[in-house]
Design brief:
This is 18 kDa Sin3-associated polypeptide. This protein has about 160 residues and is α+β, with helices and mostly antiparallel strands. It has three helices and five strands.
Length: about 160
Amino acid sequence: MASVDVVIEEKKDDAVDRQKVCPFLLRVFVSSNGYHHKPTDYNKGNTPQNELQIYTWKDATLHELTQLVKEVNPEARRKGTKFSFSLVFPDMRVPIYRMREIGSTTTGIKGPDDLKTLSQARFAIGDFMDIAITPADSWNTGGRKGYAQNYNNHRQRPY
């Protein structure tokens, strides 16, 4: 009697067949000082200077986007470099842009947001991505003892 092997393949809910579905243009604005751009930097048709244009799909993960940014940003390749992701989107009620943090990744360290997809973050085609890169030395100096203080100081830019 012949044996039958059963293979169960897990399908992601938001998986895209990348061979059949055309990618879209994601406009990414990067700051290397550890702070996000201000939402007002996007108003009245303006955008910040450091723009990357990435062709991707809605099932792209934050880890995938981190890898793409590291390809063009050599200083972000150091272990411990933190990437903080925010979506920038138009407010439908008033003519301004809003910003919402969606997660973070760290070079060389697996984290809970690594596998978060653009779909899971409720990304809509046409939204912008704002990425604040914090060098490893800036937030990780002093070991774990100073971690909370350094992290909180670099999380949001004082306006």
